[in-house]
Amino acid sequence: MGRAPCCDKANVKRGPWSPDEDIALKTYLEKHGTGGNWIALPQKAGLKRCGKSCRLRWLNYLRPDIKHGGFTEEEDNIICSLYNSIGSRWSVIASQLPGRTDNDVKNYWNTKLKKKILASLANNNQIQQNPSLITPIDVPPPPALPSNDATFNAINIDPSMFVVDPFQEMSGTNSSSQNNSCTTSSRSNNSYVAWPGEIDGLLMDFSFGSSPYDHVFSNGGYGGVQEKVIVGGEVSPNLGVWGNSIDNNSQGIYECHILKGITRHNEEVQNKDHSSAS
DNA sequence: AACGCAAACAACCGCAAAGTA
DNA sequence: TTACTTTGCGGTTGTTTGCGT
After folding, report:
1. Is residue A201 within 8 Å of residue A261, measured between CB atoms?
2. Who contacts A243 (Cβ-Cβ below 8 Å, separation ≥6)?
3. What CA–CA distance (Å, rounded) separates A164 from A170?
4. Higher pLDDT, A210 or A43
């Protein structure tokens, strides 16, 4: 025996909503609210609809704070980043996009964004196979990985040492940790990672990049990375980094994997970097 | 103008979680 | 604690719209 239906399907209207139905539902909800019971609502509102259908229509279309129209580049970036981190949890992703619904985000992903990403990845593969396709950008190439530099000490980091987004006013950060790396989605001026004060910098692997641009020492402004460093004492004993946009032509969100923490032996270099970044 | 196809959007379905008696 | 109801979510399907031939 199957599950009982949520409503009497023979006596409810299905399919697209008419303008009259929209008005009836909107008027009722604005006057009375849901009353905590969507199932009973259609009858009270004089609608021959299933309660679930009413709820969906309201949440996805009629609510006054719904944003209609195309998605911005910024919204694209947030969706991509969060999808990368948490997968198809559309309601969570939508909660980071004011005015957007989970259905909207899901449809947008399935019809447009996924294809856009796939096309971009295909393009990246072409570049990896033929580096001459890369248009040079006017930033100096990053230095060799600091772990090979006598100035630096590479430290293996336990991801639990990282503090991600501890301040209320910061938003847009999402993080996860696995193995011996910490993953964060970073976006200019909107999200950051903080880490223990005894560590001066991080080795990062930007998942989209092609070597050598995807390895960055990220506490001193190497490699054309647009970043801002907060130094301990002002808001926290931790250090933080913002805005890991790997090339100067794009401001999007990219996932980076934090591979290792780094300390510096040279106190003067550390002080200089800190003062110039504040 | 008519047709076919693909994209975009709206709506439905079933499951699981949360709430309640 | 249990059984039942309601809500929320994500996957999927259906419908509409726009464009090319």
Report:
1. yes
2. A186, A187, A188, A189, A192, A225, A226, A227, A228
3. 10
4. A43
A103 sits within 7 Å of strand C by its CB: yes
* Strand B nearby residues, CB < 7 A: A 3, 5, 9, 14-17, 50, 52-53, 56-57, 60-61, 70, 103-104, 106-108, 111-112
Give the residue, A178 or A101, on which the prediction is more confident: A101
pLDDT digits (tens, 9 = 90+) for A62-75: 888 888 778 887 78
CA distances for A203 relative to A119, A181, A253, angstroms: 28, 10, 18
Phi then psi for residue A253, to 5 deg, are: -90, 135
Do the bridges between strand A226-230 and strand A215-217 make them parallel or antiparallel, or are there none, so unpaired?
unpaired
Neighbours of A137 (CB within 10 A): 13
pLDDT in tens, A151-191: 333 333 343 433 333 222 222 233 332 222 333 333 322 23
Determine if strand C comes within 7 Å of the CB of A13: no
* Structure tokens that stand for A231 in this block: 């130094």
Name the pairing type of β-strands A215-217 and A181-186.
Answer: unpaired
Is strand C in 7 Å reach of the CB of A55?
yes
Q: Are A255 and A181 in contact (CB under 8 A)?
A: no
φ, ψ for residue A195, nearest 5 deg: -145, 165
Nucleotides of strand B under 7 angstroms from a protein beta carbon: 7-15
Amino acid A77 CA to nucleotide C20 C1' distance, rounded Å: 32
The nucleotide closest to A40 (CA, C1' atoms)? C6
